């Protein structure tokens, strides 16, 4: 019932930032420093295709999910789900945590069934036979039925968001039930305030309709069906309460989305996101304190995810604004500035170089018989760690390097590179230009009549020229400078009037 965007946790190296010189539309144009800077070779290297198993060093990431709608990848590494079916073409999945929380909810409802029934009898005149529903195993059976009904309501809530988003052309990856309710995974989030407002309120509207429908069924159910009438009355109240709770302006909950939509009417999208996120984090702190005083673990958990999700989405939206119209070439480390190693270098020497030069990865260049050398692989600290320290003199870089490489064009959008690194779980991309079959000079991907686009991520081909490398260090150093300069959002025109 919340909207959450994806992001990865980056920690830019301050030593690199101090030496970086950047300028482009938002005060950023070029950055020549990354974990592979310092000139050691000039000119491009030719890519040689190889077929070894990849051992890319995985990026560190923090991704969050909850009772919300998120783009795919946000809950990667957090949710362990399996598909149980689909509705309207949207896969429905169950996370392992759902299997743990379902009996817990059933127990909590069953243990309080007498008190709840008494309240329903007093407020609604339900006429439920408390003696019947509290006898034997009935509390646990009706508690389980109510818990299942609650999660059905959550799925319908997420379907409200999802089907409305599909109406605007936003594909939905899946809906997953987990510890805190439901996660609707979006492939793209709306930036038009009208679309976001409509999508955000669709979920609570569905919850209200489910609550009203449950109450109508409760009123027409025969008096003798005490268990069914209890479950229906309970779900009627719970779904309406759920809709009200989600309309709190705690971004990225539904109410927070509505708040951002209204803010985005009169200010840039990134600025509206930052302001809505600030409100969301404040309410998350208050929610967490209330949960702490009430000893409510679920509320504390929700508050934690609201706070982290608000911070994550604010960073992601700000990054997207900062890198608007910025290409990979603007922030990559050029080929001439890359530290490289040869295939014959021993692993012991490699580790020593990593220590002395404070780098964790090197392109591997084979210069034998070639003027400019050719790229044959990439070696990282994680590759070196696979070899025991006492055996590192006996192994060479060629034996441990990664040769299953992924590339991107220098003309691709910077955000495309960021998304690809996350998508493929890699920390860096090789930047190549394709050697034209009709000319001697190189061309960016997609400019030689090929059907491949300039933003396509693909494996290198024989004859491609290495022109640089883009890493998360490059990206985050540039982003950190833009953010601290206060230039983000000053010139953007993302506001939809």
TrEMBL record:
Span of domain CBS: 332-394, 401-488
Signal peptide: none
Subcellular location per the Swiss-Prot or TrEMBL entry: Membrane
Top-rank lineage group of the source organism: Archaea
GO BP field: proteolysis
Pfam families: CBS, Peptidase_M50
Biased composition (Basic and acidic residues): 455-464
Key words of the record: CBS domain, Hydrolase, Membrane, Metal-binding, Metalloprotease, Protease, Transmembrane, Transmembrane helix, Zinc
Regions of compositional bias (Polar residues) in chain numbering: 435-454
Primary localisation category: membrane
Any Gene Ontology CC annotation: membrane
Cofactor: Zn(2+)
Keyword Metal-binding assigned: yes
GO molecular function: metal ion binding; metallopeptidase activity
Membrane topology, from the record: Multi-pass membrane protein
Transmembrane segments annotated in the record for this chain: 87-110, 130-156, 168-187, 199-218, 230-251, 282-310
Matching InterPro entries: CBS_dom, CBS_dom_sf, Peptidase_M50
Region named Disordered: 434-464
Similarity remark: Belongs to the peptidase M50B family.
Protein name: Peptidase M50
């Amino acid at each position: 019932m919340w909207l959450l965007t994806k992001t990865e946790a980056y920690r830019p190296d301050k030593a690199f930032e101090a030496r970086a010189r950047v300028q482009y539309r938002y005060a950023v144009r070029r950055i020549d420093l990354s974990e592979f800077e310092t000139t050691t070779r000039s000119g491009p290297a030719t890519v040689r295709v190889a077929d070894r198993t990849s051992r890319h060093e995985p990026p560190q990431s923090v991704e969050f999910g909850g009772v919300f709608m998120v783009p795919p990848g946000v809950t990667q590494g957090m949710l362990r789900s399996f598909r149980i079916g689909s509705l309207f073409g949207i896969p429905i999945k169950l996370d392992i945590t759902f299997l743990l929380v379902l009996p817990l909810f059933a127990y909590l409802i069953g243990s309080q069934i007498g008190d709840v029934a008494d309240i329903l009898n007093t407020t609604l005149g339900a006429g439920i036979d408390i003696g019947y529903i509290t006898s034997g195993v009935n509390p646990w059976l009706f508690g389980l039925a109510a818990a299942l009904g609650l999660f059905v309501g959550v799925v319908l809530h997420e379907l409200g968001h999802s089907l409305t988003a599909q109406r605007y052309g936003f594909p939905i990856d899946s809906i997953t039930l987990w510890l805190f309710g439901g996660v609707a995974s979006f492939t793209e989030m709306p930036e038009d305030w009208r679309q976001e407002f409509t999508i955000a309120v669709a979920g609570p509207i569905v919850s209200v309709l489910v609550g009203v429908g449950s109450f109508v069924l409760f009123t027409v159910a025969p008096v003798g069906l005490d268990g069914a009438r209890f479950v229906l009355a309970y779900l009627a109240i719970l779904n309406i309460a759920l809709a009200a709770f989600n309309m709190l302006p705690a971004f990225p909950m539904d109410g927070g989305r509505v708040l951002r939509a209204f803010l985005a009417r009169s200010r840039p999208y990134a600025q509206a996101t930052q302001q809505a996120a600030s409100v969301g984090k404040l309410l998350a702190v208050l929610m967490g304190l209330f949960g702490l005083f009430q000893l409510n673990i679920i509320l504390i958990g929700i508050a934690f995810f609201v706070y982290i999700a608000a911070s994550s989405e604010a960073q992601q939206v700000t990054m997207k604004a900062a890198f608007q119209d910025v290409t990979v070439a603007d922030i990559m480390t050029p080929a001439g500035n890359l530290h490289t190693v040869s295939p014959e270098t021993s692993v012991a020497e490699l580790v020593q170089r990593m220590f002395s030069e404070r780098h964790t990865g090197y392109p591997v260049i084979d210069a034998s018989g070639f003027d400019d050398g050719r790229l044959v692989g990439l070696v990282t600290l994680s590759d070196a760690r696979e070899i025991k320290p006492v055996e590192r003199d006996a192994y060479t870089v060629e034996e441990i390097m990664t040769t299953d490489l992924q590339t991107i064009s220098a003309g691709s959008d910077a955000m495309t590179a960021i998304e690809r690194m996350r998508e493929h779980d890699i920390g860096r991309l090789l930047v190549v230009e394709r050697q034209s079959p009709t000319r001697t000079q190189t061309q960016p991907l997609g400019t030689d009549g090929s059907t491949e686009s300039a933003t396509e991520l693909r494996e290198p081909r024989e004859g491609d020229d290495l022109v640089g490398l883009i890493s998360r260090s490059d990206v985050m150093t540039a982003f950190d400078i833009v953010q601290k300069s206060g230039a983000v959002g000053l010139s953007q025109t993302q506001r939809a009037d």
